Fold Glutaredoxin.
Amino acid sequence: MPEVIMYTTSTCPYCRAAKQLLNSKGVSYTEIDVQSVDQKVEMINRSGRRTVPQIFIGDWHVGGFDDLAQLDREGGLAQALNPRLAG
């Protein structure tokens, strides 16, 4: 299973929603708090976006919570997390 990384802040309701969605699916993830300037710069450089959350599955930039929720609704989240299902 590819690593899931999520850039967040502690006060962001969309971050909480994304974590709740991933937790409900039993998906483990690494959370990077962008309160630190260095982490925020890393997120912006990696995603091209300034808002949180920014979610990555492996090297693939999923986007924010709305993107993650849509991916899940369309059945793509399970496929992205387990590429063997696609083959």
